[in-house]
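Bench log, entry 3. Co-assembly request; chain sequences pasted below exactly as received.
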Amino acid sequence: MSRPASRRIPVVAALALFLLVFSSACWLPPAPATPLLPADERAHTPELREACAVTATKCSRCHSLDRVLIAGAAGPRDWAVDVARMRRMAGSGITEADGAVIVRCLAARAAPPPAPPTAPPLMPAPTPAPERATAQTEGGPP
Amino acid sequence: MTVSRTIPGLAVAVATAALAALAARPVAAEPEELRRNFAGSVQLDYMSVPTEDVGRDTSLDGATVELSLKLTMDYGDHASSSVKVCVACHGLEVGMAFFDLRVADELNFRVGRFTPAFGEFPLRHDPANHRTSDKPLPYDMGRMLRFAAWNMSVLPAPWVDNGLEVNGTHFFGESVQVDYAAYAVGGPRASVDAVDFDYRQSRTSESYYIDNNSRPSFGAHLAWSVITDDVMVMVGGSAMTGTYDPDNELDFFLGGVQAVARVRDVFLRAEYLARRTEMSLGPAPAMRFRYGPAMDGAFDPYFLKEGFYAELEAPAGKFDLVARWDGLRRRGNVVRTSELRSDTGLLRYTLGATYQVRPALRLKVSAERYDFSDFEDETVGHVGIAGPF
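Structure output for the full assembly:
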């Protein structure tokens, strides 16, 4: 199938576009975060960022990260089972050490957000009057 | 008994011995926990062919739904079973029904009905795992234009078959790994006197999931990967060979190479597939084929079908952008009723995007330009929504 030069232009353009966009990724600054990090940024420790980067790399080899975002695992134990299943998939590329790192990232998504730092009170908090507390509980006017 | 006929028996014997060894492993004192996992995906796609008055003449246009439901059962760390059913253009199909018996990372036995390891795309053929509504041309099943004239692609994905696969991964340090797979499956099918695979025979109720020639097809896959936090590079090769007619007279050889590079969240994927397939010349090839014999007076019984794709995927906020360039080429004689010439080609250019409506729900939009060597060029648009569950 010989093609005239004019018809080769789209082919060359397509190749050039691929190479341009892909090579540009090499010069981009590091991605700020993966979508796997917990919503609460206070939990974004360097270790967790690294764990979630590994998770994104390993999981996206076979499927989109969307599948991870909607997985129903409730905690570290459930995630460990799910990750072990993925690890056993042919060609998953997940070592046992990777598995532990991935579970650390995914379990953090299900963990409750860390408590906000609390400063010691400068003076004792006032005790609410019993009548006012009752009114608030019952939904009446303050 | 010929050597070729002893190979399947030998393979089964080796596999049986290995499985027996696995079964004889000491059982843990504590009973292993049985766990079930359910997953699935659904995609609704609307395909429009604005360059045709009636798109159905050349394609399966309009609205189509692809649904998959998968149940996995874990019997501890060394055994699991998976069952997956799919509903798509040709009804309800069993896409998986297999056991995995795992000795170590380097040795896993898969027995049952599965997609044998070939290439890179079949690993993510599920619509929720790739960003366009349709598949790259070398793996297209029925969404390409003129799919009937081309008899679909080189290896329609997912290629599902019954048999045995041995696979595994060896890790070299923390970043390098080698994956392998070798398998014996029923193989592609066709009737006596065929000139190409008849994909319907792999799924019709008349010969439902039964091998048509009592002899397996063999295949293997080997891939080498380097994976770091920011960069992943994989190169691999795959091959499959066997006979596809009931009399075991028509052979085929399918080979492929694939490469994937990931830099941060940007993927570049490329694959090339080629299938050399023997055609039955029949008692009167001059009456059957459109083109005459070669200079030596003999008809060439083979045709070569090649396919490639290169795909770039880049995230941009809630969007994922996709650019894909793919093509098919077929060289070899054709039957008199065929619409194709003896050397025919197709190039396709695709631009697409997905928008993340919800964390795992994506709106897919893409436009494709088909550049046929034997037909008028065409334009296709896709709008779809897909997500896993």
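The radius of gyration of chain B is 22 Å. Chain B touches chain A through 65 residues (CB under 8 Å).
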